[in-house]
Design a protein that fits this description.
single chain, 31% strand, eight-stranded antiparallel sheet, alpha+beta, five-stranded antiparallel sheet, Arylamine N-acetyltransferase fold
């Protein structure tokens, strides 16, 4: 399964934002970063490159815009998240390799029908005449993830929100580093000062000083990244 293989091989990460490196949405540069340099990325990078792969393999795939559910209710602005819809034999599937802890296989877009990815349960419901809402279902509690429309978008339409998430102090991506990847039985997640390894036997958490972040990054993700020199009066 392509989606699961991607999630186990390529981490969700926002490191370039914290190391002063501009994120480009040009497919060639994304290929160089993610495939050649064996890095990861966030939704605009991961899903756009995966979309290009699906199209190259002959799938009818299109990029869509999604608005992420907020903890206090409501949804984020349009283009806050980039996802994919794939059409196969008249059926549409939601495909997403850039949302961190999410479904590990395509979700059938059929309102009212629940889908299992083997780990969790999801449902897609009509939100209004223009949007659908995808949610996780945990112990019969429905937890909204994001709302999306089926309208095909161009990658360039996401540039402003991509810039926002790289530069704005209001974006959660600028507040802390995060690297996360799917494993055979769980997930490994690294933030500024914490490593979390979850699996069938539960979770292990290790806290450390922020100056040790790069050591854990290389040990658990095989990523070595050099911090750019900080100019006078600027911060990284």
């Amino acid at each position: 399964m392509l989606q699961k293989a991607h999630l186990k091989a390529i981490p969700f990460e926002n490191l370039d934002i914290h190391y002063g490196r501009e994120i480009s949405l040009e497919i060639g540069r994304l290929f160089e970063k993610i495939v050649v340099s064996e890095r990861g990325g966030f939704c605009y990078e991961l899903n756009s490159l995966f979309h290009a792969l699906l199209q190259k393999l002959g799938f009818m795939a299109r990029i869509i815009s999604a608005r992420v559910a907020k903890e206090n209710g409501g949804f984020s602005p349009e283009y806050d998240h980039l996802a994919i819809v794939v059409s196969i034999n008249g059926l549409n599937y939601l495909v997403d390799v850039g949302f961190g802890h999410f479904a590990i296989k395509p979700l059938l877009i059929r309102p009212g029908v629940r889908s299992s990815d083997g780990i969790g349960e999801f449902q897609i419901m009509e939100f209004d005449r223009n949007y659908l809402e995808v949610s996780r279902v945990e112990d019969e509690v429905v937890i909204p993830e994001y709302m999306f429309s089926m309208v095909e978008r161009k990658l360039t339409e996401f540039q402003n929100m991509c810039d926002y998430h790289q530069k704005s102090a209001d974006s959660h991506f600028t507040r802390k580093k995060v690297v996360s990847i799917l494993t055979d039985d769980g997930r490994i997640t690294l933030t500024n000062t914490q490593l979390k390894i979850s699996g069938l036997q539960g979770s292990q958490i290790e806290n450390f000083g922020e100056d040790e972040f790069e050591k854990y990054l290389e040990r658990y993700f095989g990523i070595r990244i050099k911090r750019k020199p900080v100019e006078q009066g600027s911060t990284v």
